[in-house]
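Please check these two lines:
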Amino acid sequence: MDTDAIQPISWRRVICLACVAALTLAGCGKQKPPPHKTTASAQPVDSGPKPLRGKPKSATELATTESGIYLANLDGQISELTRLTRERPENISNVMALSSAHHTRGRFRGDLDEIQLGIDGLDACVRLQPENAICWLTRAEQEQSLHRFPQARADVDRAKQLGADPVRAAMLEMDLDWNDGRYETAIPAIRNARLARATTSTWIREGQLDHDLGLENEADAAFEAAEDLINDTGPLVIAHLDVQRGIQKSQTGRLEDACVFYRAAVERIPTYVAANEHLAEALHMLGKNEEATRIYENVVKLTDDPEFAHALAELYAASGKTKESKELEAKARAGYAALLAKYPEAMYWHASEFYMATGDVKQALVLLRKNVTLRPNSTSYVALARAELANGLASDAKASIDKALAMPVVSPSLFWTASRIYRRSGDATKADAFRARAEKLNPRIATDEPDDVPRDKAR
């Protein structure tokens, strides 16, 4: 699963959206004159657009700390802060620093338990200093990582009452609005945030927005603008950005290009779970299963995330390793059950993907109905429509997809699903039109998106 996620807003993407704001606070978003970019709400600021590089900056062009040193320092920081907070639990500065470090490592590893450790620290912060706006706001950011959106909104409201940084609060609210499907407020807020403060984080968020609106050239320009602003020597910032750019390419069918960005992220941090698993998935989609299998075998050693055990099980099954496949599938099933019990909101989507893929479409439907109640946005309705169609609920599926079609977000999955649903309802003309729109956004859509498997890969 990706960090923060964005990541289509799966829990991984949501983590990434939260971490984007955190990256600015950490110093990666210090302002420099931004390169030109034209968007629907912004006019050119120089004589003409700069040519796009179309590839990630190399380690020579954008040097960062060696990943082993960076991660050892993070581990050391957590170890020392843990000791200090045990000795003096009332020291809020150390409690908050430890919480942030746990959150960063949890995102990096794809470890929900460690993300929860960060939230636990902020619970203590709120108890010790209930009038401290930063405690409430930071907890809201981390709660969003686990899809606890109502709790996050309540915390951000309390933080604002206590005088929290209005810019930081607005950044969080715009992503909460996005997850709630409040696009009429979220979209201008994302645009305005970048116009008001051009940083790595605001450019990344605008790039994600442009991609979600089908503006791929603008998304490319935004991501390169974000890259040009990076001056944090830590490798996680650039690796995170490269993953976002790879996701954009993957979702538009440009898998070879996606692999370039995923490989760049892996080169920055070889043990970065999100980068490795996205690379493995893209390679599998390209038919390069031998390399994909090797990467997934490494990933399952790095994390207990059941999603990756399931992915490897499928590859093993395809290659005739039946025993190994069944063992991994059982491990994945047990893992999803455990995570659904501990972190239900964060797992509704991903567990539904597993159940759809393994034929339990009824359980997938149960989870996706809960998911759409939690975050009633476009991608949630698309996934629900697919599950409803798989369960033979054609009229329900049409109602759900029509809700998604009425929203401004576009994707190949949206139009591909709409095509299937409208064809089932007997409207071949609209079905053909939706299919054409899906194939225009992603020429590979018929290959990349098998029937009845919801796709919302993490950011």
Summary: DSSP finds 23 helices and no strands in the chain. The chain has a mean pLDDT of 89. The first helix runs from residue 11 to 26. The radius of gyration is 21 Å.
